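As a warm-up, study this chain.
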Amino acid sequence: MKLPIELKQRSGIIRSCLFHLSLGMSTLGLSATTLPAADWLGFRGDGRSFAPESNTPAEFDSESGKNIAWRVATAGRGIGGPLVIGEQVFVTSCGGEDERDLYVESYSTKDGSPIWSRPMRATGRPFTHPTSSNASPTPASDGENIVALFSSCDLVCYDVAGHLKWYRALAIDHPKTGNDISMSSSPAVVDGVVVVQLENQGDSFAAGIDIETGKTLWTNQRAASSNWSSPQPVLVDERRWLVSMHNGRGIDLVDPRTGETVKHFDASGDGTASATYAAPYVIVPGQSTTAIRVASADFDDKSNTDVNAEIQWESSKLRPQRCSPVASNDRVYMSRGSVLIAGSISDGSVLWQERLGKLENVWATPVLTETGIYIVSSDGTVMVVADKGDEGEVIGESKLGESVLASPAVSNDALYFRSEYGLIKVAKE
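Now compare it with the structure written out below.
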């Protein structure tokens, strides 16, 4: 894919600078439960793709530059979403022969200038479908560390200043892990543990890895079939985290510290779309969407295993296509290509549907801000739909001018789009 002219002009300068720039930056030292809302720490932010206080622009334009704060070329290609922590935006990239060259990169939120870039070489299988990428998973963070997973099963952790903390070549431990499309499940940071879900027809497994040391805490064998959904953190109460994982054989609620399956449900989950957690519901897409109500129970602190979890509702009408569900406080939104569906989060009833005829081939999970729901097609067309209560209304249509497969990030009143070869900040002028 060709770069826009302005990106081509800047890419040479940026690429030559990336390897030499490093800017130290202190962190707030906060846990994931107390980080400011401005931080976007993983795939779909907090797991809902929801930033209710962000007043983002409904319209912007690549050609005129309207509401385009900046755009830069990245060191390589990538389709994983960006993270935003403080005044830094983080992305992963890949390039070179068979996309074996891997990068974790940091850019300034203010002007897009590069802060640091860390190159490495893939140790596992880098081959993917042409529409996918070795830099397919979205990285994850606890606010102090950046954890990046690549399709080649290379897992690396840096602090926000770019200092290497640890590196794991998971393909060395699991050499049969991989498929021809990509290993695109994104990692999650849950209660100090990096949880990866690498399901495929070879060596299929999930693992919990200590974020401070890189040591494997547990490994669970998973069903030997391809699955690209990502693990979803679930905060039961202030004492207890779980992580939701699903595939075609069921939904599991797992203890992130031990790997123990606390609850299992015989409900088939989607192989592409991930679960969404909007307390107290874990919403799992599949042939039917399943909503599981999770709550704390009186439990023995020694065993720490009792959790109340039961299926609240199931709906075959309220389900997405490829994209993960988006949840507000009382509603859940499903993107089905050129159709956006709004439903009740408490009972799964369909409230309205809005047809978006100009959108095709939507892979990116939408995001919801104070302005509306942003749906992004792979050609870079962005449509914004406002929820009017009993109907949806299109309030904006924009062009980014580049291919976008990644879900955007939201921070303060800005949107950050990771295009295939670049990074774009959209904010009101």
